[in-house]
Specification:
Strand content: under 5%
Radius of gyration: 23 Å
Low-confidence stretches: 128-132, 252-259
Largest sheet: 4 strands, parallel
Amino acid sequence: MEKRPVRVYLDQKDFSRIGKGLQGSDQCEGDLIAYYAFKDLVKQGKARFYFSIVHFIEALRYDDEKINLLKPYCEAVDTLTKGHCFKWPRTIEQEELDAWLHRQTNNDSAGNSSCPFGKGLDAFPKDSLRGLDLLPKIRANLRDACRKLPPIQGMPLALASQNDELLKRMILQMPDSNYDSFIRDSAIKVTSRRECVEMLFGDPDTRKKILDKTFGTFSSLIPFSRDYPAIKKAGLMFDSSAETVGKAITFLRDFSGQERMDPKKHHDDLVVKIVDSQKKKINEFCGNQKIDEMPLLEQLTKTALDDLPSLAMVIEASTEYYRLHRASPEKGRKPKQSDIADIAHARHLPYVDIFCCDGFFANVLSGCKKRNVKVITRISEVPNAIEQRYETLAI
């Protein structure tokens, strides 16, 4: 039996700096050196990198002025992750809760554990994304982009679709605009003429199968995240201004008039609110099992959701973040635009071996419960950390 790879989670800034290095930036030479070391470690089976929906949300900030960085950024993500990702946060939460509930009523815990990892489309909400609401959008974009092109040697699209080479040439001639270039690059990944035609004109079930097969990388999903309502809404929330974050921190600090709220109270209030948000699921489970739900709710509250790692991490990170900003906002570090996204990144920490973040959030995480995870702020230190952790992994 072989060892599993070391699980690594890079920050958005790490992928961004690698992207700049791929563009030739001298200031990111060290990041590029680490990137090539990562590629070797992935090839050797020693490391596995993951992206999450938070990387998608942060990529939404690559507007027209930064669009040139988006392609190498996506190249870095795809090359290192090979499509491996964390599932949609709500999916992870539900699987954690389901596994915990079953462990409470089943002495045999085998199989009663959650798996937060997925591939490609799993980073999005499963039920909504795999429905038919997104498929017409994809098909329409491909069809419209192709129809805007002049026919090759007078051939219409229907005739060109009968020939692999002609069809791919048509796709390659698509305008190299910010959006259509990604549609073109995604379409060219379709492996056959039949699949390409079925993606354009096929029935819903066939298109869904091709969608799962073809659009499974970060770069192929990025353009659709811009039009997907759930991502757009999340993007607006995570992309809140530093001023808004600062007002929220000030509100928490002055929650009880002029008296500053104690971090422990902030922590306990968060626990109660999150446990309350899980009541419906617990109630349904207990109803089916014909057991009392109160002991389960009390246990979750008492343990601060320790058995639901991603939710526990949100509570710990946000509490420590609040504690570090508890002083006057006019002094010390100011809240930043990316802070909420960094807290969302932190929810994946319990599931990896190496977690990368900036210096401030390394400080935030140092105040959380200790886990067997190495937190690193310098990407240059990650290759050696992977080698060292790999040596300690059991077969």
